[in-house]
Specification:
The chain is mainly α. Helices cover about 80% and strands about 0% of the residues. It starts with a helix and ends in a 6-residue tail after the last helix.
Length: about 240
């Protein structure tokens, strides 16, 4: 089992690094976003640098989970590979775990590069304790958003494209969250809605080490829903 997951992670990381678009949005774009927004808004405030540092990580978790796992599995379905994998002498969920851990590894690389850029530009570097909490948040967050992305993909599996739905959900989650600013300072209703969506609880874990009931529900429900949807798949001959 461990060997299967290891090889799945290894080959997925190699594939991700070879795709320039994937490498850019996973590793380069978050750094660009952080440097631009911090230079525009921080005005030398280290608290805001730390706030934006974790906000960029949170937004990257959401985008990676939604767009980097579900579409890959859909391509497996369209090419018939998913049907083939189900016939293999191991549980296909191990392969999905490999996909998710691959994104976790990519996000850890993003964290390292972001930390270097933050220290060189603003003198900010998260402590070892904060780093441990951030890694835990990355793992929980990427698991949540990966399974949310898988659920959306499997609900519209036979549609030609469901990127519009995925984009809509991503931007609603992102712009109602506390990734770049505290939404509650501007709109209480939006803040209440955001607290029920997955990104704000993930940010609370990353920033404050706070594991909320909402986060726990988002960690469990998409996995159960995906398991149900996966069992209902019908393959065309």
């Amino acid at each position: 089992m461990v060997k299967i997951i290891f090889y799945s992670i290894f080959y997925q990381i190699k594939a991700s690094l070879r795709v320039k678009q994937s490498a850019f949005f996973s590793l380069i774009f978050p750094i660009f976003l952080f440097l631009v927004f911090t230079n525009l808004w921080s005005q030398g405030d280290e608290e805001y640098v730390a706030f934006l540092f974790t906000g960029v990580i949170g937004s990257t978790i959401a985008s990676d989970g939604l767009f980097a796992v579900g579409p890959v599995v859909k391509s497996y379905y369209n090419t018939g590979l998913l049907h083939y994998l189900r016939k293999m002498p191991f549980n296909i969920l191990f392969h999905f775990m490999g996909l998710i851990i691959n994104r976790f590894c990519m996000l850890c690389m993003t964290f390292v590069i972001l930390s270097i850029a933050s220290y060189c530009s603003f003198g900010y570097l998260p402590s070892l304790q904060q780093t441990g909490v951030i890694f835990a948040g990355i793992f929980i967050g990427i698991t949540i958003f990966s399974f949310v992305g898988l659920c959306i993909t499997f609900i519209g599996l036979k549609q030609e494209s469901n990127f519009s739905m995925m984009n809509l959900i991503y931007f609603i989650v992102l712009f109602t969250s506390n990734s770049f600013y505290v939404v509650g300072d501007f709109n209480r209703v939006m803040s209440t809605v955001a607290s029920l969506l997955p990104l704000n609880p993930v940010l609370s874990l990353i920033r404050e080490g706070q594991f909320t009931l909402t986060l726990g529900l988002w960690f469990i429900i998409p996995v159960i829903l995906f398991s149900f949807l996966f069992k209902k798949i019908k393959y065309s001959r």
